[in-house]
């Protein structure tokens, strides 16, 4: 798989996740299940890496996986607890699982293309 195609897949998957979760939490806020302030606070962390993901910054793809872990916990908890929103929870968990594989893989491939990475310590520096 090329870096460009992986970039497109990750970007589309991330935007789909943002739309899915935004719709879910706004609906929960409007129905009164949760307060609207809580729902908006739950969406904000997901929006933090938006600019870097759209631009294709490999560093953003690397650290955005940590944010996705919060939402994976939400999805897996819903799978375990609810019967009403089971399909939503499975879709959310599956999408996040795919992004948790795709994001670091893209960051690694793109970082190698750009020559980024940790510099090895030479023996003279010791």
Automatic annotation (TrEMBL):
The chain crosses the membrane at residues 9-26, 32-50, 62-81, 87-107. Keywords: Membrane, Transmembrane, Transmembrane helix. It comes from the Bacteria. InterPro entries: DUF2069_membrane (IPR018643). This is DUF2069 domain-containing protein.
């Amino acid at each position: 798989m090329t870096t460009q195609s992986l970039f497109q897949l990750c970007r589309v998957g991330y935007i789909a996740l943002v739309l899915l979760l935004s719709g879910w939490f706004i609906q929960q806020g409007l129905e009164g299940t949760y307060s609207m302030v809580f729902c908006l606070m739950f969406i904000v962390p997901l929006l933090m890496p938006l600019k870097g993901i759209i631009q294709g910054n490999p560093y953003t793809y690397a650290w955005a996986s940590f944010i996705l872990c919060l939402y994976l916990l939400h999805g897996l908890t819903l799978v375990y607890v609810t019967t009403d929103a089971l399909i939503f929870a499975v879709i959310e968990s599956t999408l996040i699982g795919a992004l948790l594989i795709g994001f670091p893989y893209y960051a690694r491939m793109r970082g190698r293309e750009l020559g980024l990475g940790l510099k090895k310590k030479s023996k003279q520096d010791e």
